[in-house]
Specification:
alpha/beta; 5 strands
Amino acid sequence: MPLPALRPALRRVLTAASAVTGALALGLTPTPAHATTPLKYAALGDSYSAASGVLPVDPTNLLCLRSTANYPHVVAARTGARLTDVTCGAARSKDFTEAQYPGVAPQADAVAPDTDLVTLTIGGNDNGTFINAVTACGTAGVLSGGAGSPCKDKYGTSFEDAIEANTYPALKTALRAVRAKAPDARVAVLGYPWITPATADPSCFAELPIASGDVPYLRSLQTHLNAVVRRAAEETGTTYVDFARASEGHDACKAVGTRWIEPLLFGSNIVPVHPNALGEQRMAEHVVSALGLG
């Protein structure tokens, strides 16, 4: 190409190069996605959020038996969020506004006006719902040799009646307390993953000694509890994260590597009938997906 014909093209190249150089000097380069401000994340809740029984244990508060491998830590690691974790084993709804133990502040104190995200599980310990029902039905199952529905026959609707009368209003009070602390935060309450299968599995009786007719009874009780948690969430402007479909087939009667919840006997956790490390990981994955955090 003749030299005169190259001059206009050369001028265009030099002009473009000059513009790029100027933009770099002025700091006009695009901001990388990872440079955005991380979410300020507060994790509240009971032992299903604390991952009680999963190692390693958080040494900062041994009373709460909180694991550093719980689902809030997994969520924070995957999203880059700045986590404040006050989850605590055996927490009840009232412990959001009252001290659960001496020296353990009310959980809602961890929520501030600039908090972006709050997650929690709560309600299972109100009225002793989980421990009372599992213990009562396990004892009845052993005495009956696994036959019939001795727990249902004895307790009827008493567990569900207590959920409606006590757990439901306590949940609303707790969720409102959190929302009042950070009205602009996204608050998400998780449903509880399935503990029992839908129907009895005879091969599971040694690990989960619930009579065949009481397995669907306990499943119905958990269904009711999760429904009440959902209702309280809807009435307080809180997001409900449903685990009914996600945790199906991962109950305490499934094999190691498949189950998310450990059985009552011969499990791998020091705290039975609670999520294992796999369960906490899967709970985190479902939370990230459901809330669009990934």
